[in-house]
Amino acid sequence: MIRADKIIDAFTAISIKLSLSFIIVAFSSAVTVNASNDGMLPEKYTMSYGDTVRTYRMYLPSSIGDGAPLVVYTHGYGSKTRWRDDLNAVADSCGFAVCYPDGLPDSRGNDSWKVGYPSQASMDINEADFFRHLLDEVTARFNLSRENVFMAGWSNGGDLCYLLTYTDPALFRAYGSVGGLMYEDIYKNNTLTLPVPFIEIHGDADEFAMWQGDHLNTGGWGPYIPVPFAVAAVAANNRCTTQAIDIFPTKRDANRMVKRTFYSDAPSDCDVVIYEIEGGKHSWADEDVDTSKILWDFFSRYLVDEN
To answer: Residue 31 forms beta bridges with which residues?
Structure first.
């Protein structure tokens, strides 16, 4: 059972010729790595959590101010892509920090976020508790806003967005999933308790996180509900009363369309949005749409003034 995160990373490694020269400087708990083709990589830190030491990277724009917003990016299953250059670029232009935490290995040895995969049954971790501690650590250490915190998750990290939306919705101010899934067990055994701003970006030809769902568990990840159903359920919980649809071409192919469905006019002003990419595969989708800019534009609508 191999999820697309690893396949995509393999193809990326083959298709892009990388020439790397590393300069490693270690001090305290931080490590900085320079890569000739990737510019400055996010700095790596450690955090004590229970009886373990967890790791995360931080991207801090040079012009960032005290109390700046924070986006936490959660990587895909076993993915070697632990940060996003396009997300860092948006952080530079819009003035927020990005935290890139590392998941824990499952029974197959792949770093992941516990959402209910069969291979995660033996993982002893409460993800909501971990992220609560991570937010306390990061916002205090780097003098960032504790209120304006957002989660952007890819694949398994997107699955986590759905899990936390149902189990700990107030942990982040808004959630953004890319190629994520809503598992039947989570949907059936939990009730949405608070309005939650939520956005999903998803290809309708995704072969690993299938648009139409996988009730029969043919993919081996566990049964999950159709993507449009999962998003509409959050919109219904938020009491959205308006649905608007617009269609526009993808960035790389004018013959392929993106359908954006926008649920709005909720009493709480917590909107829900889904981008359906025609023919889109399991990816961060940045070749089809401006993924990171779309996510931040959505998140930024829920910034609060802490003064």
So the answer is: 26, 44
4-32 burial, b at 16+ Cβ within 10 Å, e below that, comes to: bbeebeeeeeeeeeeeeeeeeeeeeeebe
- pLDDT band at residue 306 using 50, 70 and 90 as cut-offs: confident
Instruction: Compute the distance between CA of residue 101 and CA of residue 147 in angstroms, rounded to an integer.
Output: 19
Please tell me the distance from the alpha carbon of residue 162 to that of residue 176, in angstroms, as a whole number. 9
Give the residue extent of every domain in the chain. Answer: 4-300
Total-model pTM: 0.87
Amino acid at 119: S
Burial status of residue 95 (CB atoms within 10 A of its CB: 0-12, 13-18, 19 or more)? middle
Write out pLDDT tens, residues 148-207: 999 999 999 999 999 999 999 999 999 999 999 999 999 999 999 999 999 999 999 999
> Taking the CB of residue 204, how many other CB atoms lie within 10 A of it?
16
Other C-beta atoms lying within 10 Å of the C-beta of residue 166:
20
Architecture in CATH of 4-300: 3-Layer(aba) Sandwich (3.40)
Which helix (H) or strand (E) segment holds residue 294: the answer is: helix 291-300
Residue with tokens 């309005």: 195
